[in-house]
Amino acid sequence: MPTALLLYDILRDEERLLLKALERFFRVKPLHVPSATMKMGSAAEAEVALERCVGFHRAIASAAAAESWGVRTVNSPLAIAVAGDKVLTTLALLRSGVPIPRTVLAFSVEGLVKAAKEVGYPAVVKPVHGSWGRLLALVNDEETARAIAEHRELLGPAYRVHYVQELVRKPGRDIRSMCIGDAVPVAIYRVSSHWITNTARGARAEPAPVTPELEDVTLRACRAVGVEVGGVDIVEDPERGLLVLEVNAVPEFKNIVRVTGFDVAGAIASYAYGLAKR
After folding, report:
1. Given CA atoms 236, 240, 241, 243 in this order, what sign does their dihedral have?
2. 3-class SS at 149?
3. Whole-angstrom Cα distance, residue 117 to residue 145?
4. What is the C-alpha to C-alpha distance for residues 238 and 88, in angstroms, rounded to an integer?
5. CA nearest 9: which of 55, 50, 43, 68?
6. φ, ψ dihedrals at 225, nearest 5°
7. Residue 133 pLDDT exceeds 70
8. Which end of the chain has fewer CB atoms < 10 Å from its terminal CB, N or C?
């Protein structure tokens, strides 16, 4: 029986489900990364590692350490780095022809004001790094744009890169689809009357059909970023169709399981087992 590592920092519902699922196929070695040391270039002690650290830099570093041991790591450190950076994700999606909302970068107060005008009001200002709908700001006019820009400039260098995107007129929901290898087995709607449709901010999860268009856009987005197992956030534009917002390399999936009944952890473990046998 092959061995699998589960790299984690917080043992959430998702990690507990994965531990149980992996035990069907592997000898499982959970590795609590904050408590560990990981010597680069050590001999491999497993065939596969699943990266599940919530912390962005911790996830990149621990995945890199596992890869340095010769362990097949899902997702790779490079994929995690790209997926966790909205600028790099946007570049990867554009290079692969994946449809996205209008997006402009700015690097100063005046630049943000100009960028918001360019994408059109209302615009959304996002942190380059971040998740769960945190630190998003809705810009409805020039005065608000300037106030937000001045505030962000005081937060430090990382917030002086302003990622400005149009607010897509979505139908009160967005889509979270799951990519596992070459399959898109399940998706949900995240429904909310608020412009931030994120379950961490109170949106309601409902099952969504995996249409051919959704499957195609999801797979193209994950391949562009290099993610093998991921969650893709997508909005529906009434004229342009599906537009990709971001790709998540360490996706939460408990709400998907709750409302669809699909065994996401089992599908991930099965995919990992296929990698281990190669």
Report:
1. negative
2. helix
3. 9
4. 27
5. 55
6. -85, -20
7. no
8. C
pLDDT digits (tens, 9 = 90+) for 77-102: 999 999 999 999 999 999 999 999 99
For residues 185 and 198, what is the distance between their CA atoms, to the nearest angstrom?
A: 21
Q: What fold is seen in the domain 3-82?
A: Rossmann fold (3.40.50)
Among candidate residues 250, 195, 243, 253, the one with its CA nearest the CA of residue 217: 243
Q: Token pair for residue 87?
A: 């600028």
CATH 3.30.470.20 matches 169-273: yes
Domain boundaries, the chain: 3-82, 103-166, 169-273
In CATH terms, the fold of domain 103-166 is: Dna Ligase; domain 1 (3.30.1490)
Summarize the confidence of residues 119-128 as an average pLDDT: 93
Q: Model's pTM, two decimal places?
A: 0.94
Whether the predicted pLDDT of 132 surpasses 80 = no
d(CA 257, CA 234): 19
251-265 pLDDT, tens digit each: 999 999 999 999 999
